Amino acid sequence: MNGRNAKAIRRQAKEDMVEWLKSLLDGEEKDRINTRSIFEYAPKQTHVVNFGSVQLSIYSYKWFIKMIKTGKNWRDVGA
Fold this sequence. Notes:
By secondary structure, this protein is mainly alpha-helical. The chain has helices at 3-24, 28-32, 38-41, 61-70; strands at residues 47-50, 53-56.
């Protein structure tokens, strides 16, 4: 993967995170969230231990990047 593709994936991951977080909030809290301030409101923990193995935490920045790279839609995961 070249740098141009990686940059586009990271940009899309930030936009998806903003959309996800805005779907959880309402009112003026929703207006404060944008791609520049998303990491202030996003979960800090990127990995969890599940039955002795370390796995990627759902709805983290790295998780959104993984969903884009694998071609999966993040909206279909919670359903």
